[in-house]
Amino acid sequence: MMASAPAVLLTGASGSLASLPRLLQGLGLTVHAAPLVSFAPAADLGPLDGALRQLSRYTAVAVTSPRAAEVVVERVLGQAIGTDSAPAVWTGAVSAPLLRRAFPRVDVPASPTAGPASLAVTLANAMLAAGVGSPVLFPCGEIHREELPVRLRASGRRVEQVICYRSVPAPIEEAAAALERADIVVATSPTVASLLARARRAETRAALVTIGPTTAEAAAAAGWSPDAIAERPTGEAVARAIHSLTLSHS
């Protein structure tokens, strides 16, 4: 499978991990892009708008997805919703710059040093350590993991989940055709990981790289355990995971 210049298939939505193609080409790898997921706002954004207009009643906002961050900022700025009295927004390093355009306080907890942890778990633990109370606003996708609300609720916090976007996967035939071009395929989300696992054929020899433990778990649950896991959703982290994989097969 691993030729002298393996072909890497990037399956994330257009514009995601913008630095990754350049980094991979610098490693001598061939890069193909085949976005297998797109994102759309929730069918009804009324609940999100209502929550954003009442930000002062929340003790914190938790944003675990860049897509959720995009929709939240778009609604706040587009409707001129005041955020002077907004609580801290807890999020990851990728979403923080965008959220700072609309919110005066954005907290990014340090990643744990011992073992991989999803952003949701990291945020929940940091929020509890900081003594965040109730209620917590959690804007999220239609398909999302429950680690953050489960951890917060187990510690007595009330969490209000508001759906703000939905994932739209590509047809399975498109995913199967894309896999035929790949020596290494990168799955950026649980939706894509599950799609790729369903599209994989018996003759598929591509290695699978996932981003974070949540996507890795989704891939494994769908029947395709990843060959490598990038610890963070950044181009640099994904490039390191792919480079390590190519070295182990050289």
Mind sketching the topology for me?
Layout: E1 7-10, H1 20-26, E2 30-33, E3 37-41, H2 46-52, E4 60-62, H3 66-78, E5 89-90, H4 96-99, E6 106-107, H5 119-129, E7 136-141, H6 147-154, E8 159-169, H7 172-179, E9 184-187, H8 190-199, E10 207-211, H9 212-222, E11 228-230, H10 235-248
Helix pairs in contact: 1-10, 5-6, 7-8, 8-9
Short overview:
This protein has helices at residues 20-26, 46-52, 66-78, 96-99, 119-129, 147-154, 172-179, 190-199, 212-222, 235-248; strands at 7-10, 30-33, 37-41, 60-62, 89-90, 106-107, 136-141, 159-169, 184-187, 207-211, 228-230.
Keywords, please?
elongated, 5-stranded parallel β-sheet, single chain, 20% strand, alpha/beta, 10 helices, 250 residues
Describe this structure in words.
This protein has helices at residues 20-26, 46-52, 66-78, 96-99, 119-129, 147-154, 172-179, 190-199, 212-222, 235-248; strands spanning 7-10, 30-33, 37-41, 60-62, 89-90, 106-107, 136-141, 159-169, 184-187, 207-211, 228-230. It is an alpha/beta fold and 250 residues long. A six-stranded mixed beta sheet has the order 3-8-7-4-5-6. It has a five-stranded parallel beta sheet with strand order 2-1-9-10-11. Helix 1 packs parallel to helix 10, helix 7 packs across helix 8 (190-199) and helix 8 runs parallel beside helix 9 (212-222). The model has no long low-confidence stretch (mean pLDDT 90).
